[in-house]
Amino acid sequence: MSNLDTRPAPSLCGGTGRTGPVRDLQPGKQVPLGESTVVRRLLPNLGRRMVGAWCFVDHYGPDDIVDQPGMQVPPHPHMGLQTVSWLHAGEVLHRDSLGSLQTVRPRELGLMTSGGAIAHSEESPHGHGPLLHGAQLWVALPAEHRHTAAHFEHHTDLPRVTGGNGGLTATVVLGELDGAVSPGTTYSPLVGADLALTATTDTRLPLDPDFEYAALTISGETEVDGVRLAPGALLYLGCGRTDLPLRAHSDSSLMLLGGVPFEEQIVMWWNFVGRTHEEIAEARSDWMDTTRFGTVHGYAGPRLPAPDLPPVVLKPRGRER
């Protein structure tokens, strides 16, 4: 997924110290995406830029797309990150400059590692279903892996963790949770899990105290560590937790995101994660003028032009609240 903001602000991330457990509700904002989709952008935001290596979170839907084109995101570039596609309803057709062509369906992992350069498009396929609901997330690649070879993975069989006398089922999307490990490739210690809870479930989920965590509510009414959350909310939970209290007031679902705090300083601008202004400027120029990012074949429309760089030098700094 692309950041389609025509004036994207630089996100100066990383280099934060560890916090203890907190309950910090993060504001999101409505952002148009493509021709007909509006998303709730929850990360980065004015209060927090990253959770572990997770650096970007969009939640969208459930949207009625019976008479709509659905998701239509033209070819666009990525650098220095991984994209994670996660659906609860609908289908997304992924194409990329490696030649990948894959339809991602609910509870399947679509994972694209950009390395130094890749381009892709995302669209609701012809004959798509009536609803579109899911999340798109980015993971920042650490310095030693940010130029790894670009590749795309599609995993349909993901491990699960159960609890709450059967009232909790956690699908491990990426990383590790309670001993269950996703087959998706990771480059730093992290977790992304989809938690499904039945109504009246009251349980605790084991966590790694070295990780910082956040919870993204997808559907239903859930209490996370005593904080009642509506769908589309992001609650930052800090570090130092050995477990997480969960209570479901209705059948509900949420995503748990976590990881070791990302100590590197990075610059995130548009669809690029880099370390210097010069690196970001070069990537933008290469997308506009060279073949570095490759070509996405088969998308019915032009590729996405890059916005203008801001009139300031982009500098990597620690996270600022």
UniProtKB/TrEMBL annotation:
Pfam families xrefs: Pirin (PF02678), Pirin_C (PF05726)
InterPro entries tied to this protein: Pirin, Pirin_C_dom, Pirin_N_dom, RmlC-like_jellyroll, RmlC_Cupin_sf
SUPFAM superfamilies: RmlC-like cupins
Region described as Disordered: spans on this chain: 1-30
Superkingdom of origin: Bacteria
Positions of the Pirin C-terminal domain: 193-290
Ranges for domain Pirin N-terminal: 43-139
Family: Belongs to the pirin family.
This protein's name: Pirin
